[in-house]
């Protein structure tokens, strides 16, 4: 452990707030201790706990983020408050601190402990690390998202490679009409530690088509391997920040575009902070492209934490009953799309005018696409501030259908 004097947060934006039980100005000067711990397979960390012997109070940080704090109650003795840690003639209360597993990252993590005395006259600061335990657990089975829905397809990415029984891997350019800049390759799809990383890199390669590109990235789809008419579609992911980065989770039919329709469940422009986009595309009666879209400010740090991006695609027959794969073969006469962020709705579409008559083209099977685009008309090209490699990290993809 490295030792320093002063509040740990003093050099980190003042994020630390020292525990203080004494009158104003009576707190004993603060000392911090800091170490690092390596965590692998972070997606499967079930819990973390730190035990330490400390007199009197402590604040624990994981990677600069507040994790826990505690103080021995005023006038409490060690014997009545906690088990004691004996070092020679000194006895110091042992505290257990539960640490949020979502504060950890893959690889090296910084653990810092501020140690405080409540009173200047309390004596020396005492700190002895006892134990730091990171517990890994088997990923739980996909839970039902809500009463009335059943899981129909999922990928939890618990293996070591992309499951090609579920996914097609795109290997070439894509989005040339959008002026996207990457060659999409199988090497940019990394399955490890319970997650899938679609990794964007700055490197010059020649694509199978002969096109030379200065970036590489990854793109997957389930066309003709899994397709569903209606349902709930969700992805749990971390999104990369940076100019020119464009991760997406979306659905297409295997008809043409725009007549075949497109449902963009989540698109993120890496330079837009906390904002995500949900969009519906179709063909108007005059044959031109139409869309309806919403930009939603989540208030979240999308590259640092896991979040769930979802869509409920509900179809209804002439009697007003649900229809769709696994429910009924009745044709739909109406449709309702609801976009969600961490389970909370933020955008809904129920009406539009289509070239083929409402609710077409959305009364047919669609398949899933996951990709990390680099560059393009919308996000623009990366600049000197964009950090590579850039990871669009996916914990799972799950699809549900309404129960009959």
What does this 3D model show about the protein?
By secondary structure, the chain is mostly beta strands. It has one helix spanning 78-81; strands at residues 2-5, 31-39, 45-55, 57-62, 65-71, 84-87, 90-99, 107-116, 126-136, 149-155, 168-169, 172-173, 182-184, 189-192, 195-206, 212-217, 219-221, 227-228, 231-238, 245-252, 262-267, 275-283, 289-297, 307-316, 322-323, 334-341, 344-349, 366-374, 390-402. The strands form 4 sheets. Strands 10, 12, 13, 14, 15, 16, 19, 24, 25, 26, 27 and 29 form a 12-stranded mixed sheet that branches.
Characteristic terms for this protein:
single chain, 404 residues, mainly beta, twelve-stranded mixed β-sheet, eight-stranded antiparallel β-sheet, 1% helix
Question: Taking all residues together, what is the mean pLDDT?
Answer: 82
Q: What oligomeric state do these chains adopt?
A: single chain
How would you classify the helix and strand content by structural class? mainly beta
Q: How many individual helices?
A: 1
| Helix fraction bin | under 10%
Low-confidence stretches: 9-29, 72-91, 118-123
Strand content: over 45%
Shape: globular
Summarize this entry quickly.
The protein is mainly β and 404 residues long.
Give the arrangement of secondary structure elements.
Blueprint: E1 2-5, E2 31-39, E3 45-55, E4 57-62, E5 65-71, H1 78-81, E6 84-87, E7 90-99, E8 107-116, E9 126-136, E10 149-155, E11 168-169, E12 172-173, E13 182-184, E14 189-192, E15 195-206, E16 212-217, E17 219-221, E18 227-228, E19 231-238, E20 245-252, E21 262-267, E22 275-283, E23 289-297, E24 307-316, E25 322-323, E26 334-341, E27 344-349, E28 366-374, E29 390-402
Parallel strand pairs: 13-16
Antiparallel strand pairs: 1-2, 2-8, 3-7, 3-9, 4-5, 4-8, 6-7, 10-29, 11-17, 12-13, 14-15, 15-16, 15-29, 17-28, 18-28, 19-24, 19-29, 20-21, 20-28, 21-22, 22-23, 24-25, 24-26, 26-27
């Amino acid at each position: 452990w490295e030792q320093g004097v002063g509040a740990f947060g003093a050099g980190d934006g003042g994020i630390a707030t020292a525990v203080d039980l004494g009158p104003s100005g009576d707190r004993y000067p603060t000392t911090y201790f800091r170490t690092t711990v390596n965590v692998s397979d972070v997606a499967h960390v079930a819990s973390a706990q730190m035990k330490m012997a400390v007199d009197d109070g402590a604040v624990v940080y994981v990677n600069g983020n507040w994790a826990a704090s505690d103080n021995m109650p005023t006038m409490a003795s060690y014997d009545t408050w906690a088990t004691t840690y004996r070092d020679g003639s000194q006895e110091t209360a042992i505290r257990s601190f539960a640490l949020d597993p979502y504060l950890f990252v893959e690889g090296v993590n910084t653990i810092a402990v501020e140690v405080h005395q409540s009173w200047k006259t309390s004596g020396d600061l005492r700190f002895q690390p006892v134990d730091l335990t990171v517990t890994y657990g088997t990923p739980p089975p996909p839970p039902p998202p809500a009463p009335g829905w059943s899981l129909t397809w999922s990928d939890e990415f618990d293996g070591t490679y992309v499951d090609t029984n579920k996914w097609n891997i795109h290997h070439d350019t894509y989005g040339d009409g959008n002026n996207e800049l990457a060659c999409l390759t199988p090497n940019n799809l990394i399955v490890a530690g319970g997650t899938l990383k679609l990794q964007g890199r700055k490197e010059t390669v020649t694509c199978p088509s002969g096109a030379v590109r200065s970036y590489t990235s990854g793109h997957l789809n389930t066309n003709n391997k899994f397709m569903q008419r209606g349902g709930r579609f969700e992805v749990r992911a971390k999104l990369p920040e940076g100019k020119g980065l464009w991760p997406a989770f979306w659905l297409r039919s295997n008809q043409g575009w725009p007549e075949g329709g497109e449902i963009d469940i989540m698109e993120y422009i890496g330079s837009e902070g906390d904002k995500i986009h949900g969009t519906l595309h179709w063909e108007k009666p005059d044959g031109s492209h139409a869309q309806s879209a919403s930009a939603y400010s989540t208030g979240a740090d999308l590259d640092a934490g896991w979040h769930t991006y979802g869509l409920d695609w509900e179809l209804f027959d002439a009697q007003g009953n649900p229809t769709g794969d696994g429910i009924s073969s009745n044709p739909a006469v109406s449709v309702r799309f609801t976009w969600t962020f961490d389970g909370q709705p933020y955008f809904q579409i129920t009406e539009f005018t289509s070239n083929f008559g409402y609710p077409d083209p959305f009364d047919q099977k669609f398949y899933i696409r996951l990709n990390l685009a680099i560059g393009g008309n919308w996000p623009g090209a990366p600049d000197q501030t964009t950090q590579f490699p850039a990871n669009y990290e996916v914990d799972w993809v799950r699809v549900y259908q309404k129960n009959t």
